[in-house]
Design a protein that fits this description.
The protein is mainly α. The protein has a domain of 163 residues: Hypothetical protein af1432 (Orthogonal Bundle), CATH 1.10.3210. Helix content is 55%, strand content 0%. The protein is built from 13 helices and no strands. Helix 12 packs antiparallel against helix 13. The protein is globular. The termini are far apart. The relative contact order is 0.12.
Length: 246
Amino acid sequence: MFMLARRWPLSPVVWPGYPRKNQARAIQRGMGEVLLRLAEWGVGTGQRGAMLRLPDEPDLALDAAVSLLASVQAGGGQGHEERVVTLAIALAQAAGLSAPQVRAVRWGAALHDLGKLRVPGELLEKAGPLSAGERALLQQHPAWGAELLSPLPLPAAAVAAVRHHHERWDGGGYPAGLRRGRIPLAARIVAVADVFDALVSSRPYKPAWCEREAARVILRGAGSQFDPHLARLFVSEVLGFRDLQP
């Protein structure tokens, strides 16, 4: 299992006026609701026993809950979520985000494709072009993922990253058609990391691209698909291609 808590230090979640014993119980209840919703989707997680063993420390319990959900998530191929987490954290740190902001990015990146658990597997693995109906169904996955997470006391920015990581800087994305600064910062970061990893990974419909060509695609999307500052920062500071032009 991909255990985030072991890799990245936690900064405490803010729980104003909420006793710590009750915090852990709220996370336990929230995870129970999430697993029930997954069962309604026909997803067998096999995680209920692990859910009951969440740590008593609230911050660790929430991090463990994210890890459990990430381990059953349908994503863009083996290891996709871990790679997106690593890239998104690196970009968030390069952008100078605070520790709580980086934590929210980390959790949002880990769970960005959670809603794909509701999408039929044959659609996710389809090698040919999608029909209009299939595309419309697939485009519901960010909203489904965010709704699934609603019982958990995650930072709003983390859930926003799940809901809005397919928005575009020019307003042509989904699910809400947000543009520019109206797109939550965590979502803008996850969007860059997600697309880059998709480009350099093999999929049923395409071979893997080399990192340098994928970085050019990110640069060409600066100001249209991606936040231009974040796209350039990602290529120069995270990938190290400081001489690269679109």
